[in-house]
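TASK: fixed-backbone design
INPUT:
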């Protein structure tokens, strides 16, 4: 049997479901095997699954009126406080603030069509943005390292790892419904905003078990598909994640 036939058999041996199950059982070997056929799109099915689970999670969220109301009440309170600060500083009059609050609350109405369309649209679009944005960012960093890789394999690494996000999205919303408040499976379950403050709690919401698991898998995948050292892969992947956490949590809170 020649080399071409061996490769063909290996390609046929790793199905989409084999790759998906391998992410949970033996991710290193799965990514290693995947490199033998860099043109196969293993990312597509996990992406579809994540979109479906995100839509289901959104449906469960909107179906729980208590959960939605609690979240929106917090957002409305923050908005009113910000408007009152603008009034006190002279940036706007009380009448202008009241008008702005009234208009904003129309869009923030949980029973409104706009609010639900935005939520479901985000559930559909976000996985696509996450997949391609992360893949491009990792591609740029790997190019600076002079690594040898195929972009499709970067998509496969991120896409297959997103199976973890799919599981996390469902479990996260189920736990939130049980707890009666929006939360994630991690430090946010233990440390409430009343204890650690809104900013730190926002950070803990992002530091959930499934996000950590996702980035560990991505790190393993980059080692296998780009042949870089593990310390370099983990440094890049977790370094970028920490940077994103700082920007979206602490920097944004300074201007909110």
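OUTPUT:
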């Amino acid at each position: 049997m020649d080399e071409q036939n061996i490769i063909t058999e290996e390609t046929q041996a790793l199905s989409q479901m084999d790759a998906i199950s391998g992410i949970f059982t033996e991710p290193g070997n799965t990514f290693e095997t995947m490199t033998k056929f860099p043109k196969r799109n293993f990312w597509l099915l996990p992406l579809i699954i994540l979109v479906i689970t995100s839509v289901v999670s959104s449906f469960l969220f909107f179906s729980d009126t208590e959960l939605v109301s609690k979240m929106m009440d917090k957002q409305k309170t923050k908005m009113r406080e910000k408007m009152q600060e603008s009034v006190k500083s002279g940036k706007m009059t009380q009448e202008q603030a009241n008008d702005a609050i009234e208009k904003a609350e129309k869009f923030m109405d949980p029973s409104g069509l706009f609010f639900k369309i935005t939520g479901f649209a985000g559930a559909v679009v976000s996985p696509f943005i996450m997949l391609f944005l992360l893949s491009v960012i990792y591609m740029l960093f790997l190019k600076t390292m002079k690594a040898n890789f195929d972009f499709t394999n970067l998509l496969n690494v991120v896409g297959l790892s997103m199976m973890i996000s799919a599981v996390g999205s469902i479990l996260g919303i189920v736990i939130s419904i049980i707890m009666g408040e929006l939360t994630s499976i991690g430090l946010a379950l233990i440390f409430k905003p009343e204890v650690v403050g809104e900013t730190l709690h926002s950070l803990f919401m992002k530091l959930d078990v499934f996000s950590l698991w996702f980035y560990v898998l991505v790190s393993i995948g980059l080692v296998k598909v780009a042949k870089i050292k593990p310390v370099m892969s983990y440094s890049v992947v977790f370094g970028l994640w920490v940077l994103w956490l700082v920007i979206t949590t602490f920097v944004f809170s300074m201007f909110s």
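COMMENT: The radius of gyration is 22 Å.
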